[in-house]
Amino acid sequence: MSLNESQPISSALCLLAFLSTPFGLRDARAEEENKKRQPNVVFILADDLGWSDLGCYGADYHESPCIDNLAREGILFRSAYAMPVCSPTRAAILTGKHAARLHMTIWSEGSRSGPRNRKLLQANSNHDLALEEITIAERLQSAGYLTAMIGKWHLGDAEHYPETQGFDVNIGGTHWGAPQTFFWPYNGDQRFGGFRYVPGLHFGQPGEYLTDRLTDEAVRVIERAGDRPFFLYLAHHAPHTPIEAKEADINYFRHKPTANSIHQNPEYAAMIKSLDESVGRVMECLEKNGVADETIVVFASDNGGYIGQDPFEGQPLTITSNAPLRSGKGSLYEGGIRVPLIIRASGAIKGAQCTQPVMVTDLYTTILTLCGLENAESLDGINLTPVLFDPETPLEPRALFFHYPHYYPTTTPVGAIRMGDYKLLEYFEDDRLELYDLAADLGESNNLAATHADLADRLRLRLSDWRQKIDAQMPTPNPDFSSKVK
Ligand SMILES: [Ca+2]
To answer: Which residues keep their CB under 5 angstroms from ion ligand 1?
Structure first.
């Protein structure tokens, strides 16, 4: 019998069963079904949001009341790590695999052009997330979820867009890493080379702001999901460049005193305000639709805050600071890789903090486990569920590895390993080692590599073993390098 033929019969049988069931029993069954219902997942990812950019992480100029409230309703991770740039983290979140294992160590476009006259030629890196990778969206889609990706994709060309990786809905996702502008119609050729647009955001109004619009679309997904469990991956472009915000918000921060603040940039603060309002609106929508308690909410950033300059009224202003952490996006110092991470799950502890080191690769296993899916293990992540209920539950001892065989304004090609409180960085241009004790020196200012040479050597070996095991791609000497050419 074909599927088409069987459907009316099974529907009729269901109806018959329903009509012949006493009302009390029917209610009890409905309740039982509700209990078994898989939780929804809302994953809100910020772009380039730094570790200290939020109130709940110590920001004293930026304001983030809604995200701070999410932290009060969930668990805040103080030592959560991502890859140092966009695409690698996104690939790692979706697959649970380390970006170095996926050979995706730099943002998509960066894989096709490297700096010319540097001592090393950058390592090979894939432009696209391979179709054979099984993403968290594919797992949830197979389990009956409505899956929606709203915002930034940045994992390859059209043949690798979200629709090919398990998303029923894709609004805005392209191979580009940033919009030309945060204002409708979100297109043009003003800042980044070539014409860019954000698809799926038609019928906007002049003055409409991208973060608000993506939130409108996200709210629509929640409202239209009906009885299906949903996976909403809301990947905001904020607060990545171009640093553009709503005028009234910029004005508000322009008049807020900054004298001793970690942060000083009113436009960037205004971008974070909109991002925060987005989180507030999504939470409000979950409440309004009666699904807040059955929805897992994850909030994270894809890499450290961007510490470059941006013109503000003609005066260059530093975009952000990751203080007390060292450096920023691109670097393997803490400022480049330590990111905000908050998880709110029904029944889990509220308002707690976890100081144990965790990584974005852990989220795949953790989310799928919370959704009750089997075979949720991933190659490079562990299940964080136990710490969601008790943040003191010791996670299995492990080393965390980092690999950035590329150049960026904040770094030369580098690898790193964190074990316990110690972290070793290995710079590939000259094999230079730096060793820090993060418990005593969070700002990584006191290099212990010479005084703790044995430990440094052990960590270096462990790091190189890991690279070999996962076939990490390495930079190679540049035969055309000349120190005389600028
Ligand atoms: Ca980013």
So the answer is: 47-48, 86, 302-303
